[in-house]
Amino acid sequence: MSAFLQSLVVIYCVLCVASASASSSPNSISSNADLYFADASVETIGLSPNGQFVALVRKTDHGTTLVIEDLDNNTVSAQSLNAIWQSEIAGISDLYWIDNEHVILGAVHKSQGIPNIIETQYRANYFVFDRLTHGSDTPNIKTIRTDAMLVSPMQNIPRTILMSTSQGATQLYHIDVDLLDDYDARPSKFRRPDGEQFTSPNRISDFEGITLRWIRGKNNEVSGALRVSMKGELVVTLLNDNLSESREIILATKEQLSDEEQLKTIIYPMSQSSVSSEFFGFKAGEERKAVYLTNIENHESRELFRLENGFIRQIIVDAELNFMGVQTDTDGQIQTLYIQENGQVSRDTNTYVTRHVLAINSERALIYQDSHDTPPHFRIEANNNEIIRSWELLPNLPLSPSILTVGSINVDDLNINYFLTTPDSRENFPLIVMPHGGPIGVADSPAFDPTVAFLNAQGMAVLRVNFRGSAGYGTAFTEAGRHQAHSGMLKDIRLVTEHVIEQDRRINSDRVCTLGASYGGYAALMLHLTHTELFRCAVSIAGVTDLNLIGQDPNLSSSSNNFVNEWIANPRENYEELYLNSPISNVTPNIRPNIFLAHGDEDDVVDIEHFYRMKWVIENSGHSVDTLILDETGHTVIDASTRIKLYDTISGFLDQLN
């Protein structure tokens, strides 16, 4: 599923350069796609402990810049980071205020490996910036040369951070930033790096075994450690305020960690929640694609969020320890996804607002907020809710007011929820039905989505359906989606579409089109091909066109293949049924398809072979098809220029509806 179409999240992708090439593509029109799918103007942001200063990282065509704004004196200083980055940057991993004068920035570098031989390697570099010299010709910038992990700033001790190293055992150190090396200082054999601080005098605690992750609590302070003991056990060590061990909980024995079935039940914590015994974490027996809330006392857990493509690097919580989002690595690019809190949906309003408190002190708070028709932004609010300063992530986006309708219908004794977003000032408008990807454990939400906003601005309504198998409606609802990708899910989408057309007379029923990515692309094609009387056209981005091919793809990891076979399609058991319910089997000379296909040539989730098979079948049946191959692009369209090209071309294809 394309990152844009994960309507559960608001995605702003950065970095990387790719291009797009078209074969038999439609003529594109001026659609303002460059405004909706440009990179975010702010990559990451942080508020100083006293609330006076804001540090933010901006990504522009000229490179990466660290900006510090003084809210009291209305002054701004900027420092280009281009000279600091020594290799390709995958993204910014951390930005924290150490105290009111120093900012620490973590940058993740990647060294590309050789497929199937050497894995891509990642390493973090940390840089400390002095606010008082920031932006000057000779800024005071320090760096950390020891192979260590940033644990947290020690905001109660100025100019001090916590770092850890792990070489058979784990050591936790307090580091004075003033003693660190200047970033441009050459290493010398006559002195040890980092002011010789990674030594016993600075050591706070020492744990046997290997620490996998530090668990953070309020104010980003460390509250525990996830580690593997010398016995091979997976344990959580909870810490006191002085960072000494207070309690140890065994999550899994060595034998359980070696049992593939047992691994499916083990969730290891990453971040503390507002409930002391509950943590946000990942499941040990699967790739890091889902976030769970687990109680380490009774081992009860539930899934909060699932990512289709890439993996989750970090779990992000807000100032009150509520689940706020994730930091992901998709096709080698780091992104931050802000997620609708708790995955819940308000069904009694036509306005939805996502709001997270990122940081707070006695006088001010740093807020992230968006709504269904208002692009996301950061802002500083005073205690009286006065807005002191705001930063728009898409500052040039023209606002296009829309109406959000939240509804549901009953299908096969299941409550199928949907979101219909319509232009505010138009009648007789087209309808775009936009199935989400996944399809299991993923869901749409009414939060701001750039694709929905883009289509609304073109005068089109957008319908999103949380069909059976979607997340956020309980285990039974998710389970109802097992092996229903080619049947029950399509039924849910079709019946909801018929329902909203009947209920909303402003929709022109002769101008309905489907648009989706990954599974959403499959659904878009199947709905159009099997119900041409209802769906006039289809847009498929990285779509599955042969269920048997996706069910036995040798390029997928074993866990991904197991997931596909268990939940989506199992060719060994249902080959004929899956063949008959694949788009490639539903194109006939008697049905004139109206289809646009787009696919990344480096897609390692849904192989581009799906694109070529569908294209061949359509053309071999005597029909034409509009296509676009996205060069140097994986399953998710990361690069802004490629996104703009893609949606500008899609706009030209959909112009037939206007």
Please tell me about this protein's structure.
The protein is an alpha+beta fold and 658 residues long. It contains twelve helices and 38 strands. The strands form eight sheets. It has a nine-stranded mixed β-sheet, with helices on both faces. Strand 33, helix 4 (450-457) and strand 34 (461-466) form a beta-alpha-beta unit. The two termini are 27 Å apart.
Q: Uncertain regions: pLDDT < 50 for 5+ in a row? A: 1-29, 113-120, 341-349
Helical residues, percent = 10-25%
Q: What would the average pLDDT be, to the nearest integer?
A: 81
Our measurement of the CA-to-CA distance between the termini, rounded to an integer number of angstroms, reads 27 Å
Number of strands: 38
What is the number of helical segments per DSSP (H or I, 4+ residues)?
Answer: 12
Largest sheet features: 9 strands, mixed
Shape: globular
The whole-angstrom Rg is: 25 Å
Secondary structure class reads alpha+beta
Strand order of the largest sheet: 2-38-37-36-35-33-34-32-31
- The proportion of residues in beta strands is 35-45%
Question: What's this entry about, in short?
Answer:
With 658 residues, the chain is α+β, with helices and mostly antiparallel strands. 16% of the residues lie in helices and 39% in strands.
Helices and strands in order, then pairings?
Elements: E1 9-11, E2 19-23, H1 33-36, E3 44-47, E4 53-60, E5 63-70, E6 75-80, E7 89-97, E8 102-111, E9 121-130, E10 141-143, E11 149-153, E12 160-166, E13 169-176, E14 181-182, E15 203-208, E16 210-216, E17 222-228, E18 234-239, E19 245-252, H2 254-257, H3 260-263, E20 267-272, E21 278-283, E22 290-295, E23 301-306, E24 311-317, E25 323-330, E26 333-339, E27 353-360, E28 364-371, E29 374-382, E30 387-392, E31 402-411, E32 414-423, E33 429-433, H4 450-457, E34 461-466, H5 475-479, H6 488-503, E35 507-517, H7 519-530, E36 537-541, H8 547-550, H9 558-568, H10 571-580, E37 595-600, H11 609-620, E38 626-631, H12 640-654
Parallel strand pairs: 33-34, 33-35, 35-36, 36-37, 37-38
Antiparallel strand pairs: 1-26, 2-38, 3-4, 4-5, 5-6, 7-8, 8-9, 9-10, 10-14, 11-12, 12-13, 13-15, 16-17, 17-18, 18-19, 20-21, 21-22, 22-23, 24-25, 25-26, 27-28, 28-29, 29-30, 31-32, 32-34
